[in-house]
User: What shape does this take?
Amino acid sequence: MKRIALWVLVGCLTAVMYACEQIPEHGLSADQIVEKNVAARGGLDAWRKIQTMAWVGHVESANAPSEELPFALALKRPNMTRFEITVLNRRTVRMFNGKQGWKMSPSATGSSEARPYTMDELRSAHDEQVIDGLLIDHQAKGIEVALDGIDKIDGHSAYRLSAKLPSGVTRHVWVDAQSFLDVKYDREVRGPHGPVTVEVKYGDYKDVEGLQIPFTIESGVVAAGKSDKLIIDKVSLNPPLDDTMFMRPGSQGRRSSVSVNAEVSPPTLSRPSP
Assistant: This one.
């Protein structure tokens, strides 16, 4: 009996210790959660020094004609982006220079023509916070952050923060209660049958020159129940990125190719011919 009682006691203590590990810190304000999040990700000063970033990896999607689709993403402050993905040896490109955006995809004949972003795509691109996300330096970006509550994300407690952007759009960011790293955020986009919510999850954080960066990003429409997964193979911080790589193809003064970094400049980051 004593042996049984001892094992019961050990089991109870283990359960209590496990519960304590899962209970988030109570009484934290939104500002304190953001402060811990910024520190966990590498610190405000370190992120402010990052002016450009490049990712190289592949996309895993159940809806794709092949299992892995190579991609390259180039980011430049304040909110320039260039995303390239290759499907069956054909490259699709989306670029945004901070004001205007264009998209290119090969036709059946193999030719490509730059088409401007739609109004919805422009609004979404203007709202994106490239490089460091919604929480880091949010006051300087004009983003209001408030604590909405605590949820369970994949079995772990996470603070749910609402982030109101200067455009008036409100998004939600979930911060893990133990690591204080971003684990999820959502945004509303316009679908063919009306607004839908897109959910983005972050995982597999790795240290890149002192910064914590997720190497797995999973996204999908909540109602659809399916998601695509971006697997990042390499990250480059502050590579030289000329503004012309974010301009409309065929614009005056553009270069035929743009080198990102010797370590992460795959052929997909060369500019396509107009």
